Task: inverse folding
């Protein structure tokens, strides 16, 4: 059993999930006005996964993320103000406006990057874990990937490699039921992605991704084992996305009313608030104070992102080794 | 009968007509129909940008959605081609060649030659390419030069709806592996396209416009930028000849050389990065084959040697512009 969460930790968990939710809802609204450039994939609905897992990590642990990376970034401690500016393509962004939504990275806090290539993160996280193992540190690596990515060769190779090298890696399959328009019931040949764990000689665990506490608990065990040299785990988090694959997706592949029903019955934030208030661990006043604080922070981040400067022309040729 | 349709419709029509004509033609890729196994619509996407929309219902069992396993399905397309099918595999963004390149360049490309001429591999790999969509470094590359380097592959980059249809039909009927690249920015471009089926042969450049002062060789979207530049230059009394190679492998060197022999001045416009590019390749063979005809050093107009940046201000600088093409033409014209 992971030790129960104290008041501070509960506040932090809620604040992180609320920040992710509000960040995504706001990007959704601003994207619709046409002001945000490029491809944007929102994490709303899946907050408990990134939050419940990353709460066990410190700055020296790495995560590898996906195209749907905003939530992972926030949970790992990337500054949302810089992220917002990055998404708007501004010079003040996390990556100076050169990466955008699909490439937010901040190695100082152990965030190895969102990724435009599905399955790209698996091998990379084996590398960060190998480095810490060789140096005799007890840091871990967490690779987030989707149900669609679970069918990618790089993920299979990474799982096998992590096992044969006994690397401190946690493979987190975020199964939201779809890869773009394709259902995981079609694309994944077994019933659960976690069933594949045995093929790679590691434990496979399934967890309800709407339940922060279930994720926190399961991740805690896997991460503890990895830190103690017990090798990798495959954790399948079953959850759902509230928005389309990317902004602009009409989602005709989903059942009518599917998203509406999800929002009403499966909401990790609502579930969390209900549980902690009914047990008297936090009050509604605590929750509402965070709601207000986060709303102000997100609003401010957008005001700032809008008025921040675009990268200057000389940035085009910065961070390369040549000048042609 | 020709009527105006878009580049995207031209591609859809070519696929549709070839599938109707030849039952061995199949399509596969991620969400080429879209909605497999899901509770809603089955042809929900028809490809990420809707290019293959409608083919799923018209050709039952021959439009296959795949898991996200590019090595797996691209390789399977190659194998199916060895066993009598004519698969068209869609890679979505050409940048994803990174995860399945072995099946293309070590496998498909080599069979005919390496097996002593006994194999044929009639597979087409379609993908979109090019910058301008704020899609950043992993969804905006050109990469046609990478494929052009590899013996055994044919590489096609149509610049307009007419060529897109005729070249795709040729690609499907061709017995060698073909990389067929569609510029994202051209999908909505309209043009005259015959309703009936026709081919545009490989290795035959199009002379987009004639002119005696300067030769501009331009590919894909850059053909249109070259036309814009040439229009402005005409007002200054400079007549440009624009050549669109249409296929970079095989490359129609004759048409390019003939033109440079006449103009003595060459500008090559290529949206990809400069080193080991089509621009450097075409420049080098012209320097070798037509050195005596050249009146000025060849100019290349390319993207810089950096990944594609996300920010609007930087991506706009990254992509070669009509203004830069004009400048290059002035430079070769005024050299002496
Ligand atoms: C190698 C590669 N193939 C395909 C894509 C296009 N693509 C981007 S996201 C995506 C679906 C991913 O689904 P999943 O892994 O389930 O993640 P989710 O979007 O559901 O979070 C696809 C096919 C890509 N970016 N990279
Ligand atoms: Mg998914």
Result:
């Amino acid at each position: 059993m992971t030790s129960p969460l104290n008041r501070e930790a509960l506040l932090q968990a809620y604040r992180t999930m609320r920040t992710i939710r509000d960040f995504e809802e706001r990007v959704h609204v601003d994207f619709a006005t046409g002001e945000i450039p490029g491809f944007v994939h929102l994490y709303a609905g899946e907050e408990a996964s990134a939050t419940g897992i990353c709460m066990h990590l410190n700055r020296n642990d790495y995560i590898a993320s996906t195209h749907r990376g905003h939530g992972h970034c926030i949970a790992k401690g990337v500054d949302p103000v810089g992220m917002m500016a990055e998404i708007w393509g501004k010079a003040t962004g996390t990556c100076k406006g050169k990466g955008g939504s699909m490439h937010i990275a901040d190695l100082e806090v152990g965030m190895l990057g969102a990724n435009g290539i599905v399955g790209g993160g698996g091998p990379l996280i084996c590398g960060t874990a190998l480095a810490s193992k060789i140096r005799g540190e007890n840091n871990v690596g967490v690779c987030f990937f989707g149900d669609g990515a679970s069918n990618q060769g790089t993920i299979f190779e990474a799982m096998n490699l992590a096992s044969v090298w006994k690397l401190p890696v946690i493979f987190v399959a975020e199964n939201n039921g779809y890869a773009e328009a394709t259902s995981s019931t079609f694309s994944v040949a077994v019933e659960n992605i976690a069933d594949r764990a045995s093929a790679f000689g590691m434990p496979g665990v399934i967890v309800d991704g709407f339940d922060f506490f279930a994720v926190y608990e399961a991740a805690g065990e896997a991460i503890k084992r990895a830190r103690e040299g017990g090798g990798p785990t495959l954790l399948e988090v079953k959850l759902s996305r509230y928005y389309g694959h990317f902004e602009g997706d009409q989602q005709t592949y989903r059942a009518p009313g599917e998203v509406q029903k999800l929002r009403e019955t499966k909401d990790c934030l609502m579930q969390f608030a209900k549980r902690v208030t009914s047990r008297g661990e936090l009050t509604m006043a605590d929750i509402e104070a965070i709601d207000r604080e986060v709303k102000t922070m997100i609003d401010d981040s957008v005001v700032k992102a809008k008025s921040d400067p675009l990268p200057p022309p000389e940035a085009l040729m910065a961070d390369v080794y040549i000048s042609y | 009968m020709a009527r105006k349709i878009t580049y995207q419709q031209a591609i859809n029509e070519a696929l549709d007509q070839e599938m109707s004509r030849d039952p061995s033609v199949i399509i596969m890729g991620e969400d080429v129909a879209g909605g497999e196994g899901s509770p809603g619509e089955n042809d929900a996407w028809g490809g990420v940008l809707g290019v293959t929309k409608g083919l799923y219902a018209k050709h039952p069992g021959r439009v296959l959605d795949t898991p996200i396993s590019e090595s797996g399905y691209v390789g399977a397309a190659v194998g199916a081609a060895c066993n009598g099918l004519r698969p068209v595999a869609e890679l979505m963004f050409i940048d994803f060649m990174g995860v399945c390149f072995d099946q293309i360049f070590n496998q498909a490309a080599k069979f005919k030659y390496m097996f002593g001429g006994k194999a044929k591999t009639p597979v087409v790999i379609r993908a979109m390419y090019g910058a301008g969509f704020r899609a950043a470094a992993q969804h905006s590359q050109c990469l046609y030069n990478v494929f052009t380097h590899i013996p055994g592959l044919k590489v096609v980059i149509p610049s307009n709806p007419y060529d897109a249809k005729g070249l795709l039909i040729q690609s499907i009927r061709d017995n060698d592996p073909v990389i067929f690249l569609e510029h994202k920015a051209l999908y909505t471009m309209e043009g005259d396209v015959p309703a009936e089926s026709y081919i545009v042969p490989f290795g035959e450049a199009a002379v987009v416009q004639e002119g005696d002062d300067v030769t501009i060789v331009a590919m894909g979207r850059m053909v249109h930028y070259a036309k814009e530049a040439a229009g402005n230059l005409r007002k200054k009394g400079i007549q440009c000849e624009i050549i669109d190679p249409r296929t970079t492998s095989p490359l129609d060197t004759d048409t390019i050389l003939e033109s440079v022999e006449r103009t003595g001045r060459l500008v090559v416009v290529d949206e990809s990065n400069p080193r080991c590019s089509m621009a450097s390749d075409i420049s080098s063979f012209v320097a070798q084959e037509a050195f005596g005809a050249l009146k000025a050093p060849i100019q290349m107009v390319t993207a810089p040697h950096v990944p594609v940046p996300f920010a609007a201000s930087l991506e706009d600088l990254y992509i070669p512009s009509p203004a830069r093409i004009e400048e290059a033409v002035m430079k070769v014209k005024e050299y002496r």
